[in-house]
Amino acid sequence: MSAPEEAPHQAEPAPARPRARRRTGTYRAADQRRGEILDAAVRQFARKGYLSTSMQKVAEDVGISHTGLLHHFPSKRHLLMAVLEAREDQAVTRFYGELDPQAPDVVRLLGLVAAQSRLNVSQPGLMQMYAVLAAEAGSEEHPAHAYFQQRYERVITVIDSAILHGITAGVVIPGTDGRAVAREMLAVADGLQIQWALSGGSLDLPAAHREYLDRVCRRITVSGQGLGPAD
Questions:
Q1: What span, in angstroms and rounded, lies between the C-alpha atoms of 30 and 178?
Q2: Cα separations in angstroms, 92 against 82, 112, 153, 156
Q3: Is the pLDDT of residue 226 over 90?
Q4: What burial letters (b/e) apply to 151-164, b meaning 16+ CB within 10 Å?
């Protein structure tokens, strides 16, 4: 058995945020290489999880040396967090950034969740990576443990806020437990993703998820309003 690539309990400094720079050819090339590394890491994390992924294998997939990889990401922990942060930024920018934080529309939110399922199916490596890492991260020693804790809490808070706003606006049935609805939504989303993976992709995940979210919408809205046509 090979030696571990990093001590499991050793604290590491957070990666420094780079200063904004004019994107010359050299920097653009570096950004392209960084993107290739992140794509390779997604594939490896999806296949083997974080614990069994080798930095050497990621480097080989990209066609660079192990030292070259460490120039971009000084440890596997840094690489993992960069992958997760890039995915989070994409989701926030593409979907939840469309919501008004002061007056979140719960029907709009559920429609955005359904739209994100369609995107997830088009990026199966990312979806499988999340499923594998979320299962691993149940251990407090896993480097993504805090990330997944915070991510679930963040999603629950967004859904709960939208439901509370809907109650105040007279759109959502009074007494609806927003946090309970949010936890149910997360459980169903995770369960459908597992079933989709086990079916070899034959399950129509976007349709199944949208049908579920439509039922939730009809269940909690005063008018019984559903999601309506897909965006």
A1: 44
A2: 15, 11, 15, 14
A3: yes
A4: beeebbebbbbbbb
Determine the Cα–Cα distance for residues 71 and 109; give it in Å rounded to an integer.
40
Residues in the chain: 231
Q: What is the DSSP string of 81-122?
A: HHHHHHHHHHHHHHTGGGS-TTS--HHHHHHHHHHHHHHHHH
Which amino acid, residue 73?
Answer: F
Fold of 25-77: Arc Repressor Mutant, subunit A (1.10.10)
**From-to residues of CATH 1.10.10.60 in the chain:** 25-77
- pTM tops 0.85: no
Q: How many angstroms separate the CA atoms of 203 and 205, rounded?
A: 6
- Over residues 114-142, the mean pLDDT reads 86
CATH topology of domain 95-220: Tetracycline Repressor; domain 2 (1.10.357)
Domain with CATH 1.10.357 in the chain: 95-220
The 10s digit of each residue's pLDDT in 59-70 is: 999 999 999 999
Rounded mean pLDDT of 149-166?
Answer: 93
